[in-house]
Amino acid sequence: MNSGDTIVAPATPLGFSGLAVVRVSGPSAFKFAEIATHKKILKNRSATLVTFYNKKGEKIDRAVITRFVAPASYSGEDMVEISSHGNPTIVDAVVSTFCSLGARLADPGEFTYRAFINGKMDLVQAEGVAALIKSKTIESVKEQQKIISGSLSKQINKLRLKLVDLVSFLEYQMDISEEDLSAKEQKNVPKKIRALHKEALVLSNTFIRGKMLNLGVTAVITGPPNVGKSSLLNALCGESRAIVSPEPGTTRDIVRSEMVLGGVPFVFLDTAGIRVAKSAIEQEGVARAKKLKEKADLIISVSDDPQAQTNKTGSQPHIFVVNKSDLHSKKPNKAIIHISCKNKTGLEVLLLEIKSALKIGPISSDVSLLSTPRQSAAINACAKSLERAQNVCKTVGLELELVSFELRSGINALDVLLGKTTPEDIINNIFNNLCVGK
Ligand SMILES: Nc1nc2c(ncn2[C@@H]2O[C@H](COP(=O)(O)OP(=O)(O)OP(=O)(O)O)[C@@H](O)[C@H]2O)c(=O)[nH]1
Ligand SMILES: [Mg+2]
Fold this sequence. Notes:
The chain is of the alpha/beta class. The protein has helices spanning 29-37, 88-101, 110-117, 123-134, 138-148, 151-175, 183-215, 229-237, 280-295, 347-357, 373-396, 400-418, 424-432, and strands spanning 7-10, 17-25, 47-53, 59-68, 79-86, 104-105, 217-222, 255-261, 264-270, 298-303, 318-322, 337-338. The protein has three domains: 7-122, Gyrase A, domain 2 (2-Layer Sandwich); 128-212 and 368-419, tRNA modification GTPase MnmE domain 2 (Four Helix Bundle (Hemerythrin (Met), subunit A)); 217-296 and 298-357, P-loop containing nucleotide triphosphate hydrolases (Rossmann fold), CATH 3.40.50. The relative contact order is 0.13. The model has no long low-confidence stretch (mean pLDDT 92). Magnesium ion (MG) is lined by residues 229-230, 242, 250-251, 270.
């Protein structure tokens, strides 16, 4: 990626639609737009109706053009946005005209990359843009909007500033001050480190919720054959997605269905009934079902035996369901949710249990949630440094040099997170995740 040239790309998907938007960013954006429209577009940030011509001077479309003078634009550079009719041939002609004038087709995420380079946003906000585009629920959209507006960065910066203050104090004591730390300060420093560690852990914990909103939840429906796993999948999604039959071993391939629960996008996966299978095909289905369970965020074990025991496996939340309650007279085990897919009873209780097992509830508007594994890893690295600093205080006492070293490594983790000192390959990875035109 090179921010010295002028780039162009469609900002809307190629297809037939009312309108399509092409974006141009860079030092020659206005010059190229004026050549292509045979018009001097003077107005900043207001829509101008123009005729768009290709390089041969042939009329391509009547379009609306908006000009954004740097630095008050998305990328922080001079930019124009052309709204043409939504026809791929027209969009292609508009983009080709700019390219023939000297612009280059933008790389994926390059407009946002330029915004980052020009200080319009940090790396956490850029990740928010990428996540916003992929958001599947309104709750996730709201979270990403908070991140883009800088609220998560503000929280991270607040933590960083407190760390910087503490390191500055310790380094002053080491290098300049001629007096030893007072007894009060000897007590205060470990106390401050403890408080910062707690703050990092609180932030780190927000990833559980942020990950669910951003990346969704995979829930695997598992259990012996013929207990009603496929019936449950169908009942949950309200349509006949999986084949249901009285014959044990009906499901072999994994059947998926998506739905939103409490603002969280869920993928429910129906799997083959687990038993010692005779045929090779069913054996493969059983093997796939077992493998899937390991990767699931939530396991729903189904049985049709009212005496079934709850036998939790794995570290993820695990819900136990007894189906076919219409056939059972007694419901002895209170730890198990009793449902009847046939009569559609108990499903509401199951949905509530799913939300409760994953702690899905309202999100406070004043907290921002970490929402990418990179953000989580960086905050965890910072928390680990603070934990090590605390251990130093506990084991060898307030050794200024050692404590300061750990605090510095905590600051470093936050700097990488915000994009102040992030390695180039990580930066490229983040922007390559965005689509062309963003
Ligand atoms: N009485 C009763 N029968 C049910 C209920 N739910 C499912 N069944 C029946 O149980 C049988 C098996 O249902 P499936 O949903 O195919 O069971 P499965 O667990 O997916 O079975 P496999 O794919 O073979 O592992 C079918 O005949 C269903 O009609 C229920 O709530 N009550
Ligand atoms: Mg089935």
